[in-house]
Amino acid sequence: MPQHTFFVRSEVLGDISVVTVTGELDADPALTMQAEVVARLDEGNPVIVDLSGLTFFASSGINALLALHRHARAKGVDVVVVAAQRLVLRPLTVTGTVGVLGVHPTVADALAALRPDHPRRTDPGPRA
User: Fold this and answer.
1) Helix orientation angle between 59-75 and 27-41, rounded to the nearest 10 degrees
2) What's the rounded Cα separation, in Å, for the pair 97 and 108?
3) Which of 86, 34, 36, 23 is closest to 61 using CA atoms?
4) Would you tell me how many other CB atoms lie within 10 Å of the CB of residue 47?
5) Residue 118 lies inside a defined structural domain of this protein
6) Distance, CA of 124 to CA of 67 (rounded, Å)
7) Is residue 28 part of a domain?
């Protein structure tokens, strides 16, 4: 059986944790991702789950994201997702999960959603 490629990395931007997931997100990697995000949520700060580096996205990834959403709500903190590629957005859309999760195309957009005072990179700025 071939070895799956999967990496998870966390960094902190101010008071927000960013968990970046790359490679193939199926059953075992989904549990690893979920454990990492839960640990960050348990610190009491919002978390961005960056899925922009995925090359495969299984239904176990959707289940993990929904479990993270429930955990975050129970803790009273936010968790949002970064994904712009079809291989992630299509299953999230078809299952209705995109309507439950906060999904953003970039980390900058996710930061802006979590920090209303942080301008979006795509925002044209004040009008004259």
Assistant:
1) 10
2) 21
3) 34
4) 27
5) no
6) 35
7) yes
Question: What amino acid is encoded at 107 in this protein?
Answer: V
8 Å CB contact between 47 and 40:
yes
- In terms of Cα–Cα distance, which of 85, 52, 46 is closest to 68? 46
Spell out the residues 6+ positions from residue 99 whose beta carbon is closer than 8 angstroms to its own. none
Distance CA 28, CA 5 (A): 11
Q: How many domains is the chain built from?
A: 1
Whole-number Å distance between alpha carbons of 57 and 5: 12
pLDDT digits (tens, 9 = 90+) for 14-48: 999 999 999 999 999 999 999 999 999 999 999 99
Contact 48, 61 (CB under 8 A): no
- Owning domain of residue 12: 6-113
Q: Which residue has the tokens 């549990």?
A: 31
